Amino acid sequence: MDAGRKHPYMGEMSLENLWNNLVSAIAAIPRSELLIATIAVVLLGWIGAVAARRGVRFGGFVRGASTLALVGILVVVVLQLSRLDPRLEVAVPQIGLPEQIVEGGETRIPLARDGHFWLRAEINGAPANFLVDTGATLTAVSSGLAQRAGLEPRRGGLPVTVGTANGPVAAQLATADELRFGNVSARGLDVVIAPSLGETNVVGMNLLSRLASWRVEGNTMILVPNNPQAPLEVR
Questions:
Q1: Which has fewest Cβ within 10 Å: 4, 68, 187, 189?
Q2: Counting beta carbons within 10 angstroms of the beta carbon of residue 124, is it exposed (0 to 12), middle (13 to 18) or buried (19 or more)?
Q3: Would you state the torsion angle of the CA atoms of residues 131, 135, 137, 138, taken in this order, to the nearest 10 degrees?
Q4: Whole-angstrom distance, CA of residue 91 vs CA of residue 74
Protein backbone atom coordinates (compact mmCIF):
# COMPACT_ATOMS: atom_id res chain seq x y z
CA MET A 1 0.00 0.00 0.00
CA ASP A 2 1.26 3.48 -0.85
CA ALA A 3 2.74 5.09 2.28
CA GLY A 4 1.20 8.42 1.30
CA ARG A 5 -2.34 7.04 1.16
CA LYS A 6 -4.54 6.16 4.14
CA HIS A 7 -6.40 2.94 4.40
CA PRO A 8 -10.09 3.69 3.71
CA TYR A 9 -11.07 2.32 7.13
CA MET A 10 -8.37 3.99 9.26
CA GLY A 11 -10.44 7.12 9.93
CA GLU A 12 -13.50 5.10 10.92
CA MET A 13 -11.48 2.79 13.14
CA SER A 14 -9.78 5.68 14.93
CA LEU A 15 -13.15 7.34 15.62
CA GLU A 16 -14.52 4.04 16.87
CA ASN A 17 -11.53 3.59 19.17
CA LEU A 18 -11.91 7.14 20.41
CA TRP A 19 -15.60 6.56 21.17
CA ASN A 20 -14.85 3.27 22.95
CA ASN A 21 -12.17 4.95 25.07
CA LEU A 22 -14.59 7.74 25.98
CA VAL A 23 -17.27 5.26 27.01
CA SER A 24 -14.75 3.32 29.10
CA ALA A 25 -13.55 6.48 30.81
CA ILE A 26 -17.10 7.50 31.69
CA ALA A 27 -17.85 4.01 33.00
CA ALA A 28 -14.77 4.19 35.23
CA ILE A 29 -16.04 7.30 37.04
CA PRO A 30 -17.20 6.33 40.59
CA ARG A 31 -20.99 6.26 40.72
CA SER A 32 -22.58 8.29 43.48
CA GLU A 33 -26.06 9.70 43.85
CA LEU A 34 -24.58 13.00 45.02
CA LEU A 35 -22.12 13.08 42.12
CA ILE A 36 -24.85 12.40 39.56
CA ALA A 37 -27.11 14.99 41.17
CA THR A 38 -24.30 17.57 41.17
CA ILE A 39 -23.54 17.01 37.49
CA ALA A 40 -27.25 17.25 36.61
CA VAL A 41 -27.67 20.47 38.59
CA VAL A 42 -24.56 22.04 37.04
CA LEU A 43 -25.82 21.19 33.54
CA LEU A 44 -29.24 22.59 34.43
CA GLY A 45 -27.64 25.79 35.69
CA TRP A 46 -25.62 26.14 32.49
CA ILE A 47 -28.75 25.68 30.38
CA GLY A 48 -30.56 28.26 32.51
CA ALA A 49 -27.70 30.75 32.14
CA VAL A 50 -27.62 30.34 28.36
CA ALA A 51 -31.40 30.71 28.16
CA ALA A 52 -31.31 33.82 30.36
CA ARG A 53 -28.69 35.47 28.13
CA ARG A 54 -30.92 34.83 25.13
CA GLY A 55 -33.89 36.42 26.82
CA VAL A 56 -35.84 33.20 27.40
CA ARG A 57 -38.35 33.81 30.19
CA PHE A 58 -37.70 30.71 32.28
CA GLY A 59 -33.89 30.94 32.05
CA GLY A 60 -33.46 33.01 35.20
CA PHE A 61 -35.77 30.75 37.17
CA VAL A 62 -33.87 27.61 36.11
CA ARG A 63 -30.53 29.20 36.98
CA GLY A 64 -31.78 30.24 40.42
CA ALA A 65 -33.27 26.82 41.11
CA SER A 66 -29.98 25.12 40.21
CA THR A 67 -28.12 27.41 42.60
CA LEU A 68 -30.46 26.47 45.45
CA ALA A 69 -30.06 22.79 44.57
CA LEU A 70 -26.25 23.12 44.73
CA VAL A 71 -26.55 24.71 48.17
CA GLY A 72 -28.70 21.78 49.28
CA ILE A 73 -26.12 19.27 48.01
CA LEU A 74 -23.39 21.17 49.88
CA VAL A 75 -25.39 20.94 53.11
CA VAL A 76 -25.81 17.17 52.64
CA VAL A 77 -22.06 16.77 52.07
CA VAL A 78 -21.23 18.76 55.22
CA LEU A 79 -23.66 16.66 57.28
CA GLN A 80 -22.06 13.47 56.00
CA LEU A 81 -18.55 14.76 56.69
CA SER A 82 -19.60 15.65 60.23
CA ARG A 83 -19.95 11.91 60.91
CA LEU A 84 -16.36 11.34 59.73
CA ASP A 85 -14.67 14.18 61.59
CA PRO A 86 -15.89 15.36 65.00
CA ARG A 87 -14.34 18.79 64.35
CA LEU A 88 -17.11 19.31 61.80
CA GLU A 89 -19.89 18.56 64.27
CA VAL A 90 -22.90 20.74 63.50
CA ALA A 91 -25.89 21.94 65.49
CA VAL A 92 -28.04 18.99 64.38
CA PRO A 93 -25.68 15.98 64.70
CA GLN A 94 -28.55 13.46 64.78
CA ILE A 95 -29.28 14.10 61.08
CA GLY A 96 -27.82 11.33 58.94
CA LEU A 97 -27.70 8.69 61.70
CA PRO A 98 -29.64 5.47 61.10
CA GLU A 99 -32.64 5.03 63.38
CA GLN A 100 -32.06 2.64 66.30
CA ILE A 101 -34.94 0.23 66.76
CA VAL A 102 -36.25 -1.43 69.94
CA GLU A 103 -37.78 -4.78 69.08
CA GLY A 104 -38.38 -7.97 71.02
CA GLY A 105 -36.41 -6.83 74.07
CA GLU A 106 -33.44 -5.82 71.89
CA THR A 107 -32.00 -2.53 70.70
CA ARG A 108 -30.88 -2.75 67.08
CA ILE A 109 -28.41 -0.23 65.67
CA PRO A 110 -27.80 -0.13 61.90
CA LEU A 111 -24.31 0.60 60.62
CA ALA A 112 -23.85 4.29 59.81
CA ARG A 113 -22.47 5.57 56.52
CA ASP A 114 -19.04 6.14 58.06
CA GLY A 115 -18.73 2.42 58.87
CA HIS A 116 -19.31 2.79 62.63
CA PHE A 117 -22.16 2.09 65.03
CA TRP A 118 -23.57 5.25 66.62
CA LEU A 119 -25.99 5.52 69.55
CA ARG A 120 -28.37 8.39 70.16
CA ALA A 121 -28.41 8.42 73.95
CA GLU A 122 -28.92 10.49 77.09
CA ILE A 123 -26.41 10.77 79.90
CA ASN A 124 -27.83 12.30 83.07
CA GLY A 125 -30.65 13.56 80.84
CA ALA A 126 -28.35 15.32 78.36
CA PRO A 127 -28.78 14.04 74.77
CA ALA A 128 -25.68 13.14 72.75
CA ASN A 129 -24.33 10.82 70.08
CA PHE A 130 -21.99 8.02 71.16
CA LEU A 131 -19.64 5.97 69.00
CA VAL A 132 -19.68 2.29 70.04
CA ASP A 133 -16.03 1.20 70.39
CA THR A 134 -15.50 -2.41 71.46
CA GLY A 135 -11.78 -1.67 71.74
CA ALA A 136 -12.30 0.97 74.43
CA THR A 137 -12.18 -0.19 78.05
CA LEU A 138 -14.11 2.76 79.48
CA THR A 139 -16.92 4.98 78.26
CA ALA A 140 -15.61 8.46 77.46
CA VAL A 141 -17.31 11.83 77.09
CA SER A 142 -16.19 15.21 75.80
CA SER A 143 -15.70 18.17 78.11
CA GLY A 144 -18.74 19.88 76.60
CA LEU A 145 -21.02 16.91 77.24
CA ALA A 146 -19.62 16.47 80.75
CA GLN A 147 -20.57 20.05 81.49
CA ARG A 148 -24.08 19.69 80.06
CA ALA A 149 -24.61 16.44 81.97
CA GLY A 150 -23.28 17.84 85.24
CA LEU A 151 -20.46 15.31 85.45
CA GLU A 152 -17.82 16.22 88.03
CA PRO A 153 -14.38 14.58 88.29
CA ARG A 154 -13.98 12.45 91.39
CA ARG A 155 -12.25 14.25 94.23
CA GLY A 156 -8.94 12.73 95.14
CA GLY A 157 -9.22 10.23 92.29
CA LEU A 158 -6.13 8.78 90.71
CA PRO A 159 -5.15 10.28 87.33
CA VAL A 160 -6.18 8.24 84.30
CA THR A 161 -4.30 7.87 81.03
CA VAL A 162 -6.30 7.03 77.92
CA GLY A 163 -4.61 5.56 74.85
CA THR A 164 -5.49 7.22 71.52
CA ALA A 165 -4.22 7.12 67.94
CA ASN A 166 -2.07 10.15 68.82
CA GLY A 167 -0.68 8.61 71.98
CA PRO A 168 -1.71 8.64 75.65
CA VAL A 169 -3.76 11.59 76.94
CA ALA A 170 -4.66 12.60 80.48
CA ALA A 171 -8.26 12.12 81.63
CA GLN A 172 -10.38 12.38 84.74
CA LEU A 173 -12.75 9.78 86.15
CA ALA A 174 -16.38 10.60 86.88
CA THR A 175 -19.58 8.69 87.56
CA ALA A 176 -22.71 9.07 85.45
CA ASP A 177 -25.95 8.63 87.34
CA GLU A 178 -27.54 7.09 84.24
CA LEU A 179 -26.76 6.53 80.57
CA ARG A 180 -29.81 5.52 78.52
CA PHE A 181 -30.45 4.53 74.92
CA GLY A 182 -33.04 2.30 73.28
CA ASN A 183 -34.27 -0.05 76.01
CA VAL A 184 -30.92 0.01 77.85
CA SER A 185 -30.23 1.84 81.11
CA ALA A 186 -26.82 1.82 82.84
CA ARG A 187 -26.70 3.44 86.28
CA GLY A 188 -23.61 4.44 88.26
CA LEU A 189 -21.44 4.08 85.16
CA ASP A 190 -17.76 5.02 85.27
CA VAL A 191 -16.82 7.48 82.51
CA VAL A 192 -13.69 9.40 81.65
CA ILE A 193 -13.62 13.08 80.76
CA ALA A 194 -10.77 13.75 78.34
CA PRO A 195 -10.54 17.25 76.79
CA SER A 196 -7.90 16.02 74.34
CA LEU A 197 -10.39 13.63 72.71
CA GLY A 198 -12.29 16.49 71.08
CA GLU A 199 -16.09 16.29 70.74
CA THR A 200 -16.43 12.55 70.20
CA ASN A 201 -18.22 10.51 72.88
CA VAL A 202 -17.50 6.78 73.13
CA VAL A 203 -19.38 3.83 74.63
CA GLY A 204 -16.79 1.35 75.87
CA MET A 205 -16.72 -2.21 77.14
CA ASN A 206 -17.54 -1.24 80.73
CA LEU A 207 -21.09 -0.56 79.48
CA LEU A 208 -21.32 -3.40 76.96
CA SER A 209 -20.19 -5.91 79.61
CA ARG A 210 -23.26 -5.02 81.71
CA LEU A 211 -25.59 -6.30 79.00
CA ALA A 212 -27.01 -9.81 78.83
CA SER A 213 -25.44 -10.03 75.38
CA TRP A 214 -24.39 -8.01 72.37
CA ARG A 215 -23.51 -9.09 68.86
CA VAL A 216 -23.19 -7.90 65.28
CA GLU A 217 -25.25 -9.54 62.54
CA GLY A 218 -24.47 -8.24 59.09
CA ASN A 219 -24.68 -4.46 59.30
CA THR A 220 -26.65 -4.37 62.56
CA MET A 221 -25.44 -4.32 66.16
CA ILE A 222 -27.89 -6.02 68.54
CA LEU A 223 -27.82 -5.12 72.24
CA VAL A 224 -29.79 -7.19 74.77
CA PRO A 225 -30.09 -5.73 78.30
CA ASN A 226 -30.63 -7.78 81.45
CA ASN A 227 -33.58 -5.62 82.45
CA PRO A 228 -35.15 -4.03 79.36
CA GLN A 229 -36.52 -0.55 79.96
CA ALA A 230 -39.25 1.39 78.20
CA PRO A 231 -37.87 2.64 74.85
CA LEU A 232 -36.19 6.02 75.18
CA GLU A 233 -37.08 8.77 72.72
CA VAL A 234 -34.08 11.09 72.68
CA ARG A 235 -34.85 14.75 72.05
A1: 4
A2: middle
A3: -10
A4: 16
Same domain, 76 and 150: no
pLDDT attached to residue 31: 45
Confirm whether 31 is domain-assigned.
yes
Q: Which amino acid is present at 84? A: L
Whole-angstrom CA distances from 211 to 8, 86, 114, 121, 206 are 78, 28, 25, 16, 10
Residues 107 and 184 grouped into a single domain: yes
Contact 44/62 with Cβ under 8 angstroms? Answer: yes
User: What's the pLDDT score for residue 235?
Assistant: 59
**Where do the DSSP E strands lie in 5-125?**
101-103, 106-110, 118-123
Q: Which stretch of DSSP H or E encloses residue 207?
A: helix 205-208
Residue 118 sits at φ, ψ, to 5 deg, of: -120, 140
As to burial, measured by CB atoms within 10 angstroms (0-12 exposed, 13-18 middle, 19+ buried), residue 106 is buried
pTM above 0.70, yes or no: no
Percentage of the residues of the chain whose pLDDT score is greater than 90: 32
Mean pLDDT score across all residues of the chain: 77
Confidence of residue 90 (pLDDT cuts 50, 70, 90): very low
pLDDT bracket for residue 15 (50, 70, 90): low
3-state secondary structure of 12: helix
Q: What total of structural domains would you count in the chain?
A: 2
Last residue of a domain, one of 55, 84, 113: 84
Domain of 136: which CATH number? 2.40.70.10
Q: Looking at the structure, tell me whether residues 214 and 141 fall in a common domain.
A: yes
